[in-house]
């Protein structure tokens, strides 16, 4: 499936409208400096997260946006083992520090996080289930990551999920071995999917820019197009709000 001419025209029109706002002279006024738009994408294994981030980055850069997709926390935090909640606290803090710094400047127009602070929220559920956090500790950590001083900087966040059977088919499609990984196996994927669903049900009433996106029955083109359309509409609303201030 390819993008239709109508879809392409729609995407480019919306992107140009957003870029006109970001490239305005006000952007370089020291008293009025719009922050970048921030997107977070997280979710269960083989749900299409990496593909989506890659294609969004490509599209917006080609439209003239200054885009950055920071390295995922798991690729940066190598000195802490993954058998402790401190690991996910640290990867969450890595993303949070970038969010705080970038939201106070205008070096980029759009920042796409590969897992950030909503992801840290979800992992605290995992560590409580493992008995390594008490209920009170889990709630305290989650409240920290959802603090209003920074959570509202995330313009759109996506929990991408996929049915475990389809996820494994994707995972093993070109694999050299059928051996499953620690997180890439049907049992763990089922648990992760349910955890993201629970988090979405809990948070979505108070976080309107949080989306649960099931990619099980979508091809790559359909998946990327659907998320791109939703992101453009979300950012357009932000644009209109900013212009009305």
Task: Tell me what you see in this structure.
This protein is an alpha/beta fold. The protein has one domain: P-loop containing nucleotide triphosphate hydrolases (Rossmann fold, 3-Layer(aba) Sandwich), CATH 3.40.50.300. 55% of the residues lie in helices and 10% in strands. It is built from 10 helices and 5 strands, in the order H-E-H-E-H-H-E-H-H-H-E-H-H-E-H. The protein has a 5-stranded parallel sheet, sandwiched between helices. The chain is globular. It starts with a helix and ends with a helix.
Give the CATH architecture.
3-Layer(aba) Sandwich
Look at the structure and give the CATH class.
Answer: Alpha Beta
Instruction: Give the overall shape, derived from the CA principal axes.
Output: globular
Figure out the total of helices: 10
Order of adjacent strands in the largest pleated sheet: 2-3-1-4-5
Largest sheet: number of strands, sense, barrel closure: 5 strands, parallel
């Amino acid at each position: 499936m390819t993008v239709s001419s109508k879809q392409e025209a729609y995407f480019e029109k919306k992107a140009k409208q957003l870029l006109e706002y970001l490239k305005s002279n006000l952007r370089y006024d020291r008293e009025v400096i719009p922050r970048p738009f921030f997107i977070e994408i997280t979710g269960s294994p083989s749900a299409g997260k990496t593909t989506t981030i890659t294609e969004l980055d490509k599209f917006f850069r080609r439209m003239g946006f200054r885009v950055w997709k920071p390295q995922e926390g798991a690729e940066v935090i190598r000195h802490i083992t993954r058998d402790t909640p401190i690991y996910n606290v640290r990867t969450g803090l890595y993303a949070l520090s970038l969010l705080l710094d970038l939201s106070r400047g205008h070096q980029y127009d759009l920042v796409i996080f590969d897992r950030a602070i909503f992801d840290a929220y979800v992992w605290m559920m995992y560590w409580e289930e493992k008995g390594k956090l008490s209920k009170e500790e889990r709630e305290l950590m989650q409240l920290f990551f959802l603090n209003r001083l920074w959570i509202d900087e995330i313009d759109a966040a996506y929990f991408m999920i996929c049915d475990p059977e389809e996820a494994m088919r994707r995972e093993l499609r070109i694999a050299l071995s059928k051996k499953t990984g620690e997180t890439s196996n049907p049992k763990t994927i089922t648990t992760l999917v349910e955890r993201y669903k629970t988090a979405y049900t809990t948070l979505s009433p108070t976080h309107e820019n949080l989306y649960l996106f099931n990619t099980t029955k979508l091809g790559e083109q359909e998946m990327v197009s659907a998320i791109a359309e939703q992101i453009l509409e979300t950012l357009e609303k932000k644009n209109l709000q900013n212009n009305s201030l």
